[in-house]
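Human:
Class, as today's exercise, you are to examine the entry below, and be ready to discuss the fold:
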Amino acid sequence: MLSFLSGARALWSRRRWAYGLYVLVAIARIPARTGFHLARPDCDTRLTLANAALSLTKIPHLLLFGLFCLLTAVQFERIDRRALGWSVVATGAVGLVVELEEGATRTGNCRLTDVLPDFMGALVVATLLGLASMVHRSLTVRRGTSKHP
């Protein structure tokens, strides 16, 4: 059990390297499928209700980008508003990059509204993390073990 804990501690100390590698692979995966043959992205930038409704049915986007937001949040030392805000912003930025890559490689639909489920997944996770953080802080203050005023 002790070796497992020390191994887990060592892995946790390298989490940022693993996260950086994960982001690099995730962003390079789409262009790599086409041998990095890119064209000018032809994206649908219309912000219509029909496009938004179609985009919000993409459950895999909600789940995967929610997971990305979670992985981004744990890179910070503390889960607070700053960490959650940057995690949501990073998730939206990666979602936008993915849409541009799909347009540039012609491997998917490049729609501006397809970033909506990415943000929705990130906002759900950020809300849950924020609530969990508030409950944790409340319990530690109640026990009198808080390190922060």
